[in-house]
Amino acid sequence: MMRHAPYGGLLVAVFAICIARAAASPTVDETLPPNYVPSGKLMYQQHCATCHGIDSKGTGPLASLLKTPPSDLTSLARRHSGT
């Protein structure tokens, strides 16, 4: 009987690592002035959305791979009178 290696799990792990590295890799646009501050929306999309999701509900593409599910930031904001 042939044993099958867990290729699916390995593929998911490699994919997750690649996505995490790509999200963490800073890209420098040298056309921007040194005092440039990106918008909060851009920073969220680059650093948070992969886990928390674009809608901030904790349903990002990597959320299912985490041991502890990401927080639903919309309920957190609502509890603290935020948006």
What does this structure look like?
The protein has a domain at 37-83. It has helices at residues 7-24, 40-47, 49-52, 73-79. The chain is 45% helix and 0% strand. The protein has 83 residues and is mainly α. The protein is built from four helices and no strands.
Principal-axis shape: flat
Instruction: Characterize the main sheet.
Output: none
Strand content: under 5%
Share in helix = 40-55%
Q: What string, H for helix and E for strand, traces the elements in order?
A: HHHH
User: How would you classify the helix and strand content by structural class?
Assistant: mainly alpha
How many individual helices? 4
Gyration radius over CA: 17 Å
Unreliable segments of 5+ consecutive residues: none
Give the number of DSSP strands: 0
The CA-CA distance between the termini, in Å, is 58 Å
| Mean pLDDT rating | 81
Give descriptors for this structure.
4 helices; single chain; flat; 45% helix
SSE map:
Elements: H1 7-24, H2 40-47, H3 49-52, H4 73-79
What is the compact description of this entry?
This protein is an all-alpha fold and 83 residues long. It has 4 helices and no strands.
